[in-house]
Design goal:
The structure is a single chain. The chain has 12 helices and 20 strands. The chain is α/β, with parallel strands linked by helices. The chain has a 7-stranded mixed sheet with strand order 7-6-16-17-18-15-19, sandwiched between helices. The longest helix has 26 residues.
């Protein structure tokens, strides 16, 4: 939907609707933010004791910081617009960052043409093919021709067997495991393009962070929602969405039933069947068939830097990770902060490993990358788990999703899956959430919500 169409829809919406919003991640907050500003009365229900979902912050041994790493690109227009509306644009900080590659037990520069040419362990033809593919992916705008294409085959055809083996295979296999061979090329392309377009020159990328971390945005949105008459109820999970005769009635929580004009859910789609068991069986089956990647993200606080890189790709047979993020090389902090994500399907045995086993791995990996690190340089470590961190998007993914407006009057459901082929991100969640809020508020019994 265009901005003009969304604005028109908002102007046609019945004012003062009382609407339940499930989930207080960036998308849920964006829904409530837009509804409240348009004169409606949203009530946000969140199971956690804080807003933010995967962007939420925690106290890491005295340092307020996100449980999972986040960064911003200059193309994150919806995110930047909300900052401007909230008067927080001056809290944005941009910084030139570096990328590296750990390969053949050595740390190498990465992320620009000179680094590619100097990269050891890859032939000249393979380097050219890899660089050409990355360049053309950055310039491409139309994702539809890639929608039905399988990603690993697409990449192999472009970069060749050598570059795929060195630069891509482990990135896929240590994130998607058995799903590696059934991913959408359009989805993978969008990830290449986003980082490629964060560059302000051929040789340098520029990424952003918020002064004060994600809490600056989250607290600002939450305060604005309340200031415009909305509510946010933390530690209050919805246990069921009640519907009768093809119409949503409201929600049930531990406190009982509460009636609403409409319900908009932004919780991960795998939760939908248990929250909405009265949906038509064919819709429930479509939700149940969707797959997600889980993550155990280890965060380490170090006395000294690990490297000079923000992002470090990893291709090492002794390390079961595709890469790591040294966040303090983007956001200056008193100590070095390193995020090491272990992605895997939630059913994989590794997801059941105790935290300590993964902490020990990370300690070993970091000391391998930087042998100067001593045991005393590890000041604190923590592991955070998120079962539904990211949807797995096979070719023609959107066709597998139910429509955002379900066949129950007044009921809307979406999560980060719905802005495919874009990868999950704060800006994408904000933009989609605001559009969904306008559409849902304008919808009547005779309208059918658009597919994304």
């Amino acid at each position: 939907m265009t901005a003009a169409a969304s604005s028109s829809a908002a102007s046609q919406a019945t004012p003062g609707q009382r609407i339940a919003v499930l989930g207080a991640g960036p998308m849920g907050l964006a829904v409530a933010y837009q509804l409240a500003r348009d004169g409606h009365r949203p009530v946000v229900f969140e199971a956690d004791d804080r807003v933010g979902g995967m962007t939420a912050m925690f106290d890491f041994d005295g340092l307020p910081i996100e449980r999972y790493y986040h960064f911003h690109c200059t193309s994150d227009h919806d995110f930047l617009q909300v900052l401007d509306e909230l008067g927080l644009a001056d809290k944005m900080r941009w910084r030139a960052t570096r990328m590296g590659y750990w390969f053949q037990k050595r740390l190498q520069a990465w992320g620009n043409p000179v680094a590619l040419l100097r990269f050891q362990g890859l032939g000249l033809v393979a380097k050219f093919r890899y660089g050409l593919h990355a360049f053309l992916s950055t310039k491409r705008d139309d994702w539809k021709p890639l929608d039905g294409v399988e990603a690993t085959g697409w990449i192999r055809r472009w970069v060749g067997a050598e570059a795929y083996e060195v630069l891509w295979r482990r990135l896929f296999e240590y994130k998607f495991y058995e799903h590696t061979g059934n991913l959408s090329a359009a989805w993978i392309w969008s990830r290449i393009r986003r980082i490629g377009r964060s560059r302000y020159s051929l040789m340098q990328e520029k990424l952003g962070h918020l002064e004060g971390g994600s809490a600056t945005l989250l607290d600002g949105m939450a305060a604005d929602i309340r200031a415009h008459g909305g509510e946010i109820r933390l530690s209050t999970p919805v246990t069921r969405v009640r519907m009768e005769a093809g119409r949503v009635q409201g929600v049930e929580t531990a406190q009982g039933f509460e009636a609403f004009d409409k319900v908009i859910s932004t919780v991960p789609l795998p939760f939908v069947p248990r929250l909405m068991p009265d949906l038509p069986q064919d819709v429930l089956s479509r939700f149940a068939a969707l797959k997600n990647i889980a993550v155990v993200c280890v965060i380490a606080k170090l006395r000294k830097p690990l490297t000079e890189n923000f992002w470090l790709n990893v291709n090492d047979p002794d390390m079961d990770i595709p890469g790591l993020v040294e966040y303090s090389n983007l956001r200056p902090l008193p100590e070095s902060i390193v995020y090491v994500p272990f992605y895997m399907p939630g059913e994989h045995p590794k997801y059941a490993e105790p935290d300590q086993a993964l902490l020990d791995k990370v300690r070993r990996y970091l000391r391998t990358i930087n042998p100067a690190l001593q045991e005393g340089d590890f000041l604190a470590m923590r592991a955070s788990r998120y079962r539904y961190a990211q949807p797995i998007c096979p070719p023609n993914y959107l066709e597998s999703l139910p429509p955002v407006q379900l066949p129950v009057q007044g009921l809307w459901v979406a999560d980060t899956s719905y802005y495919y082929p874009e990868d999950r991100g704060i800006s994408e969640s904000i933009g989609f959430g605001r559009r969904m809020a306008r559409d849902a508020a304008a919808a009547t019994a005779s309208t059918t919500g658009p597919r994304p």
